[in-house]
Amino acid sequence: MTAVQPKSDTITVHNPADGTIAGSVSVDGPDAVAAKARELRLFQPEWEAIGPRGRKKWMMKWQEWILDNSDHLTDVLMSETGKSRGDASLEALGVADYINYWAGHAEEFLADKHPTPHTALYRVKKLTTVYRPYPLVGIIEPWNFPLALLGLDVVPALAAGAAVLLKPSEVTPLSAVEFVRGWTEAGAPPVLGLATGYGATGASVIDNADYVHFTGSTATGRKVGVACAEQLKPFSLELGGKDPAIVLADADVDRAANGVAWGGMFNAGQVCVSIERVYVEAPIYDEFVAKLTENVRKLQQGSETDPGFTYDVGAMATGAQRDIVARHVDEATAAGARVLTGGKPTGQGTFFEPTVLADVTADMSCISEETFGPTLPVVKVADEDEAVRLANDSQYGLSATVWTGDTGRGERVARRLECGAVNINDALTNLFCPGLPMGGWKSSGIGYRSGGASGLIKFCRQQAITAPRLPTQKSELLWYSSSKKQARIALAAMRAFAGHGLRRFGIKG
Ligand code: NDP
What we know:
Elements lengths: L9 E5 L6 E6 L3 H20 L1 H18 L1 H12 L3 H25 L15 E9 L2 E5 L7 H12 L3 E5 L6 H12 L6 E3 L4 H10 L2 E5 L2 H13 L4 E4 L4 E5 L5 H13 L9 E7 H17 L20 H16 L3 E4 L3 E2 L4 E2 L2 E4 L6 H4 L6 E7 L2 H9 L3 E2 L1 E5 L3 H8 L6 E4 L12 E2 L2 E2 L2 E2 L2 E2 L3 H4 L2 E9 L15 H21 L5
Helix pairs in contact: 1-7, 2-4, 2-6, 3-4, 3-6, 4-5, 9-10
The structure holds NADPH dihydro-nicotinamide-adenine-dinucleotide phosphate.
């Protein structure tokens, strides 16, 4: 069973948990995408002109709509992903939280900056850096968080003053339809548009945008990077991961076994920063593996319609994804790994049992490739050095976790890891903290999202403005002279200015 239909003018979306039809969207071809982009561009200058305060007003109305409709949004999300209610219900709230953050901080983050002149001579100038949004930002999203990722990416782009053309995954377009409907029903200016379709629609979005933010697999990310480079368009890529957990011998084993289970099983393991490999120091290996297995075995799996109940682990979003997980487990067991719990597809839809694997080695696909499913392969290591070496031995570098009784040691280990984020004694924490940068190293991405002011500035072009702070003097033009004599005069003038000249004009040195 798969949520994706053969290519046609319409995409019918199925619930992967039970195969029922969840809805449908049209496929936007190149002309339709270009027309949407043109319309968004018409309204963007006014959106920029009303400034962060004017935009905040509309964004807070939109947030109200999202909160009022959060149950409906959760239902739509579940219907196209097969997520458990617990996992799905976090997404609308996450978007509301991110609207608070970005709309609330935009005025501060986008305020003009006045850098300190590098020499005293430039104190006669007013120096200003201005942040002007890219008129049209194209945002292309995957299927694993059809709503939450829009909070991470679309919300800051709008807060920065850009118009946004959003392309959701063909597998999960329905949440994005609702997200944009909420914007319209809140009465906000028409600067948020939706392009639905397959990969070709994503390619058209790139052709029409001024800046591209892409989240998805490393393979597609490379294509997006090439397309942007050919068109000389700036872009950022948030790509795949294979996050390691390092469990040191001094860790609180109960907490580590709980945290690793949560970090590996949340959203059925379909998180770019899911824990996908676990390295445990030998002295606590047996105890840790026993506790982790017990935790994972207890998880309840299924899909539900009763709003008062939630399973722990839902379905995989597609049959293809479930097949990748099954292949990794089968290849591992064929090469000698042991399944301690789970290990196979289950139920009617695209479910895969929450799985723990032991006796795993570095050459197995469950360690070297992104799995993106509910599996936790565990490897015994001799010491911290071996754990760090194996953790870094990956093409990916998204994030990692370190479990230890000594947080100082945890921070020292973090600084040895080749990845964009490290959570100590916790998992996924940085995901929910927009003040911190989130970005992949190595094949996990280019650029960052979030990160306080830089999360808005990435959607802006920076403009330098200089203006005289004093009546303009003809002699200032001397600075640009190529004649040696005049250059010497200019240098002498700079020295004089640096020493005394500024005070004459009432400017503090
Ligand atoms: P894909 O790379 O397959 O697709 C991502 C998006 O790109 C989809 O909307 C897809 O459209 C679109 N697309 C496909 N081809 C093109 C193209 N040539 N030009 C432009 N757009 C195109 O990723 P998945 O949807 O399979 O998502 C899973 C991946 O996303 C995992 O690798 C995961 O790690 C990563 N991810 C990374 C995150 C991060 O922050 N680093 C966060 C979440 C997920 P369509 O679906 O219609 O083919």
